[in-house]
Amino acid sequence: MDYGAATPVDPRVATATTCRLPELFPNSMSFHSFGQGAREALEESRQIVANMLGAQTNEIIFTGSATESNNTVIKGVAYALKKKGKHIIISPIEHACIVESSEWLESQGYEITRLKVDQYGLVDPADVAAAIRPDTILVSVMHANNEIGTIEPIAQIGAICKEKGVYFHTDAAQSFGKVPIDVNQMNIDLLTASSQKMYGPKGAAVLFIRGGVKIEPLLHGGGQEFGMRSSTVNVPAIWGFAQACLLCQKDMAKESIRLTKLRDKLIDGILKKIERSHLNGHPTKRLPNNVNVRFEFVEGESMIVQLDMRGIAGSTGSACSSAKLTPSHVLLAIGLKPQEAHGSLRLSLGRWTKDSEVNYVLKVLPDIIKRLREISPFKAHD
C-alpha cells in the first residue's frame, strides 16, 4: 500500500533489461561498434518516451532522478532568463525539491510567489493569471500531488502561460504512466517524469524541454544529452525506463479503471467503518491509485508502526519527507491544522494490489485506530 513512494520493477522490465545488458553496458559516446549499440538503445528509448508525451525526440533529456530534473528546471530557467526577470510562481503543494530549489533562489535575489490552493489542493487558473507579471519567467505547478493525489487543471494553466509568454513546467512524477499526458494539448513547456514511479528501475528520469525554451544546464562536461546534462548516460536504467513506458502505455486505460475501483472501495470502506475519518484531496479529481485519509485523535507515525506490524506498508505523507517531524506542508496548505495533518495516512495502490489486500486493510485498520484512540492524548471530550 505504498506504491506512491516507489514502485517495484516489473519482472518484464527486468527481463528486457538483463537480456540486453551486455549491449547496454558500453559508453554510448564511444565510436566503436559496442558503444554505438548502446547509443542505438538510448535513442530508441528516447523515441519511446517522446511518443508517450507527444514530444519530439530532441526534446527528451534523460536525467538521474525527478529531483535532478526539477532542480534543472527551476535553476536553469532562472539562470537563462535572469535578464528578463527574477519572478517565479509555484504552487504551495509542490514536491520538496521544487520548494527548496525555490527557497534557494530567493537567497540569490529571486522572488517566488506561492499560490493558494482550495480545500482539495486545487490551484485556481485565475490565480495563476493574476499572479503573472512582466518579470515572471516561470510557472511550476505539479500535475498530480504526491501526497493527496489531487490532479491539477494543467491544460488551463498551460494555456494561460502560453498566452502571456511565460514558461510553464509541471512535475508529472506521480502521474506519468497513470493518466494520459500530451505536452502539446496541455500547453506544457517543461515536464518532469521518473522511472521509479512507474515500475522501471531507479536512476533514470526524464526532463522534457520544448524546442526553443531557454534553460541553462546544471552539469557541464562531455556534452551528453544535447549538452543539457553532461554525464555518462545510464543506458541500462534508461532502457528499463522505456520498457516500463511501453507497458504503462499499453495497459493504462484498463489499469486506471481497476485501480479506481479499488481506491474508491478503500476510501468508502474507511469512511464508513471508522467514525471521525476524513478524505484528504479531491474526491474524484485524483490519481486512480491514491488514498489519503485523516483520523481524529490519532498520530500518524503510530499508525504506520501498527500497520507495518500487520504486514501493511503505508506512509504519513511523502516518503522523501517522512522522517521529518514537522507537519506536511501539503496538508497545511489545504487548511488542515498541524494535529489533523499528523493524523493523516497515505495508502497508494499499484499493479499487484489485489481486492483481497484492500479487504485485509479494511479488516485491520478500524481496530488499529480504535486502539490508538484509547491511548491518545488527543481524545475528544464529549
End-to-end Cα distance, whole Å, is 34 Å
Strand segment tally? 10
Q: Please identify which CATH superfamily of the largest domain we are dealing with.
A: Type I PLP-dependent aspartate aminotransferase-like (Major domain)
Listing every helix as H and every strand as E from the N terminus to the C terminus, the arrangement reads HHHEHEHEHEHEEEHEEHHHEH
How would you describe the overall organization of this protein?
The chain has 382 residues and is of the alpha/beta class. It has 2 domains: 11-247, Aspartate Aminotransferase, domain 2 (3-Layer(aba) Sandwich), CATH 3.40.640; 252-368, Aspartate Aminotransferase, domain 1. Helices cover 41% and strands 12% of the residues. It contains 12 helices and 10 strands. The chain has helices at residues 11-18, 21-24, 33-53, 66-80, 96-107, 125-131, 154-164, 235-273, 300-309, 329-333, 338-342, 355-374; strands at 60-63, 87-90, 111-114, 136-140, 167-171, 190-194, 205-209, 277-279, 290-295, 344-348. The strands form 2 sheets. It has a 7-stranded mixed beta sheet with strand order 1-7-6-5-4-2-3, sandwiched between helices. A 3-stranded antiparallel beta sheet has the order 8-9-10. Helix 5 links the parallel strand 2 (87-90) and strand 3. Helix 1 packs antiparallel against helix 8 (235-273) and helix 6 (125-131) runs parallel beside helix 7 (154-164). It starts with 10 loop residues before the first helix and ends in an 8-residue tail after the last helix. The model has no long low-confidence stretch (mean pLDDT 94).
